Every structure is written in C-alpha cells, then in structure tokens.
Amino acid sequence: TSFGKPEVTSQSTQAVLQEAAEKLNSLQTVAFPTETVYGLGAIALDSTAASRIFSAKGRPPDNPLIAHVSSMDMLRRLLPEGYIIPQNCSILMKHFWPGPLTLLFPTNPSIVPPIITAGQPTVAVRMPSHPIARALIALTGAPIAAPSANSSGKPSPTRAEHVLKDLDGKISLIIDGGPCGVGLESTVVDALQSDGNIRVLRPGGVTVEDLESVMRQELGDHAPKILVHRRDYRDEVMEQSPTTPGMKYRHYSPTVPVTLLRTSHPPSDIRAIPLASFVETLKRNATGELEVGLLAPSDSPLLAKITAFSGIRWRVHPLGPIAHPSVSAQRLFDGLLTLDGAGVDLILIEEIQEEREGLAVMNRVNKAAGESKWIRMDSSCER
Ligand code: TXA
Ligand code: MG
C-alpha cells in the first residue's frame, strides 16, 4: 500500500507524539529518531503491525526485530512469568540503559509474536535514551519493534531526510529529531550463555572496552569474558551458523560501488598496491571524468596524498580525527548516504583502527564494501 507523502515534522511537540502514538496503536508504522539511528517502529505485540515493518523494508522474515521499551515494567512484560534476570544482564542494564545496548532475553511467546523473534527462543530488547523515542514508547504504552528505518541492505539512516528519501510512499509518518548522536546501531549482546561469558553478536554504540570495564568494576576477578566475533559476515563458517540472523545478509550498501582502502600492514600473502598505481587504475577504467567520494579521517595521511592526484573530482566526507572513532561512527552512514545521493561514481573508505567505536565502524564498512585493497603510500616504491 502507498500512503502518499509522509509528513516530516520538526516540532517534537506533544501533539506530534500523540499522533504518532495513535498511528502505532492503530497498527501502522512510524519512523522515529533514536540516539543510534532512525528506527521504523510498529507495536511489538501485534503480528499485523510487525509485518508492515517487514514489507516496508523488504526485510527477510528470518531476521528478528529489537523490541524497544521505555521502562523496566515494559521489559518484564515481554519475559516469561517469574523469570529472574541474570546478574550479568542486570549489571549491563544498570550501566548502559537507557542507551545503545540491546540484550537478549528468553521470550514469552504468548506475548511476543514469533514474527518479532523470527521464531527464536530469545527476544532482543533495548531501552533507547533518545527523549523522543522514550516519550513515544511511553505514550504508546507498548513496546515498539524497530529495525533501522531503511530498505533492507541499505545504510541505516541517521537523519530524517535519509528516511524520507529511502522510504517515501511506504510509511505514514516520520518524526524529525535532527541527526542521531551515535550514528551506528546498538551493540547486540548475548549475556545468557551457560559458560557465563558475554558474547557481542553485533558491535555497536557501546564499545567492548566499555563492557569490559564495567564488568571488571562490578565483578573484579570474577568478571566474565567479553567474546567478540571479528570475522566478516562473508566468512563461510559464519554464513552457515550466523550468531545473529542479521549478520548473514549483505548490508549497508549504497547504490554505487564501495571499496575499502586498507593502509595497515597486509598479511604475508598479499602485496599492497602503491597509491599512485591504484589511482591510475581508477582513471584508466573510467569513461569520463571520475567523481570519487572519499570517507577518511580528517587527519589521515592517505586523505592528503590521494586528493592531490589530479584528473579525479574528489568529494570528501571527513570522518573526524583518527583519535576519535566515535566521530567516525557518527559520520559513516551519513557519509555513505550523502555521497551516494550526490551521484558520485564510486566511494572509497579508508580503514580505521578497530578500537573502541572503530570496531563497530569497521564491522559496517566491511559489509558495505564490495571489495578491499591494500594500499602502500611510500612513494619510493611506486610502480
Ligand atoms: O540501534 C539499533 O539497534 C537500531 C535502532 C532503531 O534501535 N535498530 C536496529 O535494528 O539496528 P535492526 O533490525 O536493523 O538490527 C537488529 C539486529 C539484527 O542483526 C538481528 O539479527 C539481531 O539484532 N537480533 C534481533 N533479535 C535477535 C535475537 N533474538 N537473537 C539474535 N539476534 C537478534
Ligand atoms: Mg538495520
């Protein structure tokens, strides 16, 4: 069904929230801001409402949704009656809720329809910190299922304009809350493992370092291990047994080709290409003048060197200082969507260090990029 042009509103007034809550309660979808990315919400307790999310996004039905709550009472309603929340989960909630952390819990299948959990025994729950998101959930009076508000496979939206451009005609209301602060999705964590360890299923807004430090602070030598999947989703083992169903799909891809430029030391079986040769090849394969989008830290040596090559129109979207990966996180999806919308021929992204927010950034970059190249920048060995 087409709803025509969705309304975009910047007055986050009670009236707008009221209207959005009414739409949600009449089983429609509403796009709303969270601190991570914009979400496409529907009541999490109703399978018709939830099915509208899947059709608007073109989302595969085996990829479960996160239920967003505004209070602990709302969380408890989703869980089996009398369920005692494990200590690791309680600690994580105490420190990171509300915020960009999603936790798995055993689901109550008589309350949570299986379309939300894709038939899994667990339900993923998050309490967002964004005031509009919190107010909307509270006003609606029910948990809201919300994936990122983009067509399946595209980068996640961090501004209301991104949502409008992508989902125009497919959803009835977008609440404009300005740009998202975190810029990448929440960290999805499984703290229910029988070995007591905590598994990060999807790196995100809460860093592994944050998780480690909080568990150490609370439990000292008894702190659980934080296990992270660093493997790419294209990894075959991962494909066969994805830990979080969303990981197996192609993701975050703009319409134009994306190449990851790796500047770290290559593995022994790979020879890095001199930067000049790489740029020459780009030019040789182009028909007219190339316009190339570039996402790189503002103080990166690669950025300075590559944009000095003539014969290419460079369109740079800086990712903030190397020392601040949180800025790269905030700017990555915006950069991919903005450059894609500007009609560049291709997008290059420079690798950043997989530390703190950099881990989540590189997780998304690896999925967005169709290919990656190791680049050598020393001019002495060019060609
Ligand atoms: O920041 C976010 O998490 C955003 C905002 C809108 O809150 N939402 C979001 O939702 O990123 P989505 O649907 O794009 O990603 C949800 C991820 C997927 O990778 C999915 O497979 C995983 O969470 N997930 C959901 N339920 C799960 C479950 N029961 N077990 C394992 N993974 C689950
Ligand atoms: Mg998503």
How would you characterize this protein structure?
With 383 residues, the chain is α/β, with parallel strands linked by helices. It contains 13 helices and 17 strands. The strands form three sheets. It has a nine-stranded mixed β-sheet, sandwiched between helices. α1 crosses α6, α4 packs across α8 and α12 runs parallel beside α13. The protein is globular and about 65 Å long. The protein binds threonylcarbamoyladenylate and magnesium ion. Magnesium ion binds next to loops. It comes from Wolfiporia cocos (strain MD-104). GO terms for molecular function: ATP binding; double-stranded RNA binding; L-threonylcarbamoyladenylate synthase; tRNA binding. It catalyses: L-threonine + hydrogencarbonate + ATP = L-threonylcarbamoyladenylate + diphosphate + H2O. InterPro entries: DHBP_synth_RibB-like_a/b_dom (IPR017945), Sua5-like_dom (IPR006070), Sua5/YwlC_C (IPR038385), Sua5_C (IPR005145), T(6)A37_SUA5 (IPR010923), TC-AMP_synthase_SUA5 (IPR050156).
Strand order of the largest sheet: 2-3-7-4-6-5-9-10-11
Rg value: 21 Å
Structural class: alpha/beta
Which percent bin holds the helix content? 25-40%
Question: What's the layout of helices and strands?
Answer:
Layout: E1 7-9, H1 14-25, E2 30-32, E3 39-43, H2 47-57, E4 66-68, H3 72-78, H4 87-96, E5 101-106, H5 114-117, E6 122-126, H6 131-140, E7 144-145, H7 160-167, E8 173-175, E9 187-190, E10 198-202, H8 208-219, E11 226-228, H9 236-240, E12 258-262, E13 273-274, H10 275-284, E14 290-296, H11 301-306, E15 312-318, H12 325-341, E16 346-350, H13 357-368, E17 371-376
Parallel strand pairs: 1-8, 4-6, 5-9, 10-11, 12-16, 12-17, 13-17, 14-15, 14-16
Antiparallel strand pairs: 2-3, 3-7, 4-7, 5-6, 9-10
Helix pairs in contact: 1-6, 4-8, 12-13
Bound molecules: threonylcarbamoyladenylate and magnesium ion.
Magnesium ion binds at residues 147-148, 156.
